[in-house]
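Researcher: Re-running this chain for the archive, since the previous output was lost when a drive failed. Same request as before.
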Amino acid sequence: MGYVIGIVLAPVVAGFARVVGLDRDRSFYPTVLVVVASYYILFAVMGGSTRALALELTAMSGFVALAVIGLKRGMWIVAVGLAAHGVFDFVHADIISDPGVPAWWPAFCGTYDVVAGVILAGLYRRPFSIVSWHSSSRLTA
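Model: Regenerated structure tokens:
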């Protein structure tokens, strides 16, 4: 069920952002990457594990770095970061023991992240879509 919700929710969020104009600013998708990476911090706190918290903060810092670099250098980096976070979700339990992570989370978040990364890559490819991200802080059509 987590896979289905992730597959459905990612295009719904991207579509909503597009319709209401949230994605006009180039910081939208980097912010999404930071937010999805931050959930594991919440789970570590909920699970009461200091060790998991330290490891999750370390992992999150890598995704935050990708978000910032992508904001400054190109949305392809953010798209790759989102997809990479999806892969991280799928292998998370093998890397970090975090008792606060819900059993359904890796399937949901991993799928959401990969689909969101693919959507962002698709938006970046379109010549008359939201591709003028290089020099301006605003996305233009």
